[in-house]
Amino acid sequence: MPDQDHPLRDRTVLISGASRGIGAAIAVAAAEQGANVVLLAKTDAPHPRLPGTVHTAAAEVEAAGGRAAAVVGDVRREDDVARAVATAIERFGGIDVCVNNAGAIATERTEALTVKRFDLLHDINVRGTFLLTKACLPYLRTSPNPHVLSISPPVNLAPHWLGAHPAYTQSKYAMTLLSQGWAAEFGDAGIGFNCLWPQTFIATSAVAALENGAEQLASARSPRIMADAAMAITAQPARVVTGRCFLDAEAVTQLAGIDDLSRYGGGEHPTRDLFVD
Question: Distance (Å, rounded) from C-alpha 203 to C-alpha 63?
Answer without folding.
Answer: 22
